[in-house]
TrEMBL record, chain A:
GO MF, one example: ATP binding
Organism: Microlunatus endophyticus
Gene3D superfamilies for the chain: Magnesium chelatase subunit I, C-Terminal domain, P-loop containing nucleotide triphosphate hydrolases
Protein name: MoxR-like ATPase
Family note: Belongs to the MoxR family.
InterPro entries: ATPase_AAA-3, CbbQ/NirQ/NorQ/GpvN, ChlI/MoxR_AAA_lid, P-loop_NTPase
Stretches assigned to the ChlI/MoxR AAA lid domain: 260-330
UniProtKB/TrEMBL annotation, chain B:
Transmembrane regions listed in the UniProt entry: 7-25, 31-49, 61-80, 117-137, 144-161, 167-188, 224-245, 604-623
Source organism superkingdom: Bacteria
Stored InterPro entries: Bact_TGase-like, Papain-like_cys_pep_sf, TgpA_N, Transglutaminase-like
Biased composition (Polar residues): 545-570, 591-600
Record key words, sorted: Membrane, Transmembrane, Transmembrane helix
Region: Disordered, residue numbers: 389-413, 545-600
Name of the protein this chain belongs to: Transglutaminase
Organism field: Microlunatus endophyticus
Pfam families: TgpA_N, Transglut_core
Amino acid sequence: MSLRFDDTSVGVAPAADAARAGAEPQSYELSDVVAVMSRVRSAIEQVIEGKRESIDLALTVLLAEGHLLVEDVPGVGKTMLAKALGRSIDCTVRRVQFTPDLLPSDITGVSVFNAESREFEFKPGGIFANIVVGDEINRASPKTQSALLESMEEGQVSVDGTTYQLDTPFMVVATQNPIEMEGTYPLPEAQRDRFMARIEMGYPTPASELDMLDAHGSSNPLDELQPVTDAQTIRGLIAATSQTYVAPAVKQYLVSVVNATRHSRDLRLGASPRATLQLLRAARAKATLSGRDYVSPDDIGALAVPVLAHRVLPSTEAQLARHATEDIITTAVRTVAVPDKRQA
Amino acid sequence: MRTSDRYAIAITVACILASFTLSPLTQDPSYLGPSWLLIIAINLLGTLVRRTRLGSGGALAAQLLALLLWLFVLAGQLTASVPGVDDAGFLDQLSYLLNEAGQHVRNDAAPMPPDNGVRLVFIGSLGLITILADVLVVSLRKPVLGLAPTATVFLVPAIGLSSDTGWWPFLCIAVGYLAILIAGGLNTRARWTRGLSRDSGADSMAGEAGVVVWRAAAYVAAPALALALIVTAAVPTLALGSWGFGDTPGTGGPLRLSDPTLDLKRNLTLPRDKVVLTYTTNKPTGTYLRMASLPAFSAAGWQNAPTSIDQGNHLPQAPGLTEPTGKERKTKITIKDFDSEYLPLPFAPVSFDANGSWGYDPQSLVVISSDRSGNRDDATQGLQYTVTSRDVNPDAEGLNDSLAGNPEDSDLTTALPSDLPKNIINLALRITRDEPTPAGKAAAIQSYLRDPDNFTYSTKPRPGSGYQALENFLFKDKHGYCEQFAASMAVMARAVGIPSRVAVGFLPGTKHGDVWTVTARESHAWPELYFSGYGWVRYEPTPSGVTGSAPSWSVPQSQTPDDPSTSNPEPQQPAITVRPTVQPRHDQAQDHTAGTVTDQGTNWGAVAGVGGGLVLLLALLATPGTIRSARRRTRLGGSFADPADRVEAGWAEVRDTFVDLGRRWPAGSPRSIAESAGRHADQPTRQALAELAVLVERGRYARDFGDVAGAAGVAELVKTIRGGMLADRSSRSRMAMRIFPNSVFRRAR
């Protein structure tokens, strides 16, 4: 069995998790969100140098209750980012290494007969954690992939007729290697749509790489990383984030942006209504992270590429012309006029 | 304020301005007050009814009802003193008034005397036009069409009036139209700000249209106004008529008049017995038949002047003629083999019934073919027509007491060129030295020229032109025919201060039975001199061998030409000057009083016109800059209820400054704009831009603005930004930006 539970914190029984989830979250102010999140950001930055944008996007997705797809070549810190995020928050983190022989029950869990109590006992799978790191998700069979993705969407797992609620915050950080495509099962469009955002880590700058040598040369900084907040706080911050105001004109702008991808000549498939919803949530989170209690069109513009690019399909012509999907999205966003009048 | 309210105000302004353009048609401006009340009432009613559920249809019905009611009241008032009509029904009163108006329009030349019917028609039409404008602009939302109703009012005097309508009616209409366009522009802007929840595509279309309207107003209307003002001020003879507007049906340029003196010379050399025309008349004496009149004198001799031509067979009263004249003369003229564009008529013609298209010059009462389709030069060929005229037969005594008048075209008929040889003027002064009255002076000049000891009639004078020909005739050769005699007398009359012109036509001819026959040899030219109360009076300086005796009025009774000194009953009359400044005893409205400036002096009217035009041009030039600085003051110093509005105003100011500098205002969110706008600016400017952008963003997208303190500093931020942006500009470009700010003409998109 290739499943490896790489627990970075003490495993928590589902029952306890449920109790914690039911606790009344404390209400947080905007300034609390900014303060807590900047602590988390600094913590992660101790581990990953020079990846401010990726970190911010990961935090945005966390606050927006979405899932993150990290796509890049091996060794640029995909898993490190996921781990650091989990480590800096006092919550459960599990890592699932996806392989072709991984079974759906390895993800969701399995009921085992307990000879002593003469009862079936549920052994939760890898998904039962606050932050789940799914490594090389495209290496698992479609069956297993869909087991993960369904749980991601619904926030619950059904095994043998019993439904187990997943703890919140719940965030899947899946990584994908775009280079070695042999023996992989690329995620179909419908599955990709469930990830709120896709980021590419990219290589560090030479300076960051130099710093990395110093920091990682002798010891693993991940080991020294201490949690700066806990799941309870994050739940409160998520609740605070959903209060962020979106003006009607900005909503209109958001819809127009998504619509623009549907009418773009370079795209065969535009963004779905789910994308509209997720873009709105992400924009709220980004605004909150920036310390604003309202969403500005800039938030939407900045998130359009990470939130929309992995959901759309370029047309054949665009592919032949080697237009990057990101550029097509950027162009489509530019065609939409930013609301420049005050509402009455 | 609603869309329809803005339009209603603009229409009120436009229609009230339009009401002025009718005033040249009547002598009675009393129609103005009631029509203004009506215009205001109609617009007010429309505005109020539109606020109810009745809408535009209800408004139209209410307005028509109000117009009818107004006419009802007015008709009652206007017919109150007319027996038989005063207690008749409304329709009878109305038809009475309309009949009356119709008669006036048919019979009277503009300006019409005061008349109740005309007043009612004017007020009614203005009311109708207001309703029409309301329908077009407010109900149909087509402010661009708002010109049509008021322009109709403008066209009535422009077409119906002979003389120059001047620049101001056009200005009235243009300003009114501008008001409507501006209201349209304001409405488009207002629509923008409340339209955010609507489909943005439709809104941007509306905004586009608004820009077009604004640009139309700025680019088309302003230069058109300036041009109209300057051109009309600089070219005093400019008349609609001379542009071919009001004179004839059909198309094409103005009428080009041939030189009638050429015909004269040609005719005089024709075979003696060639019959030009015959006529019968109801009076025992024959009559001079006048064709053309040459009012302009210059180095080139006597010439036609640009004139405006009125259509019609009924001529206005002879200019300046107010003394009772003789009975009507009816003359039936048959033209034989004779081609001309001028219709030979006895002076002063009242009406004629010639076939073809004829127009008349109200100043000279010359009738000219206005047929544009064919060849006008042979318009008289084979023509038979009847003329009613009144002979001008002044009594010698009355004429002797009369002063040299001041005709309406005195700028032409009194002007003496400054380069006129002095000896001609000296001769005139010498001849008339002993004559105290203008008529006496005229008689003296005539008798000097008629004296066979002085001059000999000959149709073959020494060749020459202009002054030279005149000097030849007067001082050297002393040979000439009627043209030289007439020209000399007219020039000398002007030299002694009597307005003059040269008429060209025919002598009365010879009578055979009842029929008078005029041959080519009887082609003739004679001077006409203008006297107060008598208007243009014919003189006959050509010797009697050709013309018979001089007119009775031109020879003082108790005076023989040889003995000029004994005659005058009041020889010591001292106060009479050449150009009278005191109204003579024939004091009539049409007789202009004194002395406008004559010959070579400064034409103060033109100076004032050009000066006024320049001032207006300057004002027009200063308008964009003034608008711009007024906007800046309001934006930075105005009071705003909502701090977000203050921030928006500051942002708009930054944007306009940007556009003024000729730079493109970037598209996008406030932050991105601030970033790209401040790319080349210094640090404080960038900083201020970023701060302002955040405020703008907050104002636009946040639930509530909140940060009142930040908004208070907007003016400071804007000043910093403006300072930073203008810092690297040359003083010239700053000046250009101040005078001609782009942002007034162009909206940043």
